[in-house]
Fold this protein.
Amino acid sequence: MIPYGRQDITQADIDAVMAVLRSDFLTQGPQVPAFEQALAERVGVAEVVAVNSATSALHIACLALGLGPGKRLWTSPNTFVASANCALYCGATVDFVDIDPATWNMSPVRLEEKLELAARSGTLPDIVVPVHFAGESCDMARIAELGRRYGFRIIEDASHAIGASYRGGAVGNCRYSDATVFSFHPVKIITTGEGGAVCTADPALAARLRRLRSHGITRDAAEMEGGSDGPWYYQQVELGFNYRMTDIQAALGVSQLERLSAYVTRRHALAEGYRAALRELPLAFQQCDPQSRSALHLFPITLSEPRRRQVFEALRARDVGVNVHYIPVHRQPYYQRLGFSAGQFPVAEQYYATAISLPLFPTMTEAMQQQVINAVSECLQ
Ligand SMILES: *Cc1c(COP(=O)(O)O)cnc(C)c1O
């Protein structure tokens, strides 16, 4: 079976991890700051806080931006559940903004409409989480402009989009947001096994994120109540978590990051191959902004006819490991119990009804891609 995504682990990665295993520190050593520094330079942002997953990154980013009971977070329904769950971890409520029918990202038009209504009923969101679906950045300039007008904070869920750019600037630079979150799960663009990071241009926010990642403990006398007792001393000044990344993971991250550009270039070459070969078939590709560059974490298509299940099963039977991204979050039983219902975000639901993600990963060979193209062509003819 050709998988829909797959990590690439080289000898250099293995050597980097082995060196940590032989060193003095498996965690809280030099590799985590080295990874944070390398990431900060790569995306052009002042601060990076590495954590044990993007889910943890979203959680502490929400907390650090003041989300809590009585507050509201809005995100896209076309995402992994973690983009919405982070609000619930904080005791806040979550709502969704429907997607654009061509880009499959949060629609700025729907967002503006919903904000106008919310302003009238006094239910404006405190945080909006745009998700850069499949690696293609949302329209951040417009979302940031709405943020200034309606007074909400912005966390970019860039779990799919490390290595992407938006109108000439790297995703992660936080030019249009308070924070940007990356995931390093093995199916994503680069991996640390499990892992995530928050990027921010705000040093005070970064300090708070570092404290939340490690139990709410500080060793900085300036943050302590009543000052320090001595060099051994630390204080827990708020309730935090153990969301730390290990040095084993960070060393893998440093090594993987060196190949980020090559990975994204390879993904673009493969995507071009798909677009050229499948252009005449009854299907649609994601519409991408010509001024931006997707990281192409996924290669989703939508079928022109409502026979996704049949096509999906036929492709799997031909050893093509297709997948579906995403079941709209509000359609999950847990969210239905919170009061969401079918038909509430119709564009995301229509998209889901015919969506299939084709295999795409940097070590995919031309022969593998030809097998996928042949299978898709047979199944759609
Ligand atoms: C993978 C993913 C996450 C969660 O990432 P983890 O590192 O597995 O916690 C969050 N949001 C989106 C959009 C994702 O694809």
Observations:
- The first strand starts at residue 47 and ends at 51.
- The CA atoms of residues 199 and 273 lie 33 Å apart.
- Residues 260-278 form the longest helix (19 residues).
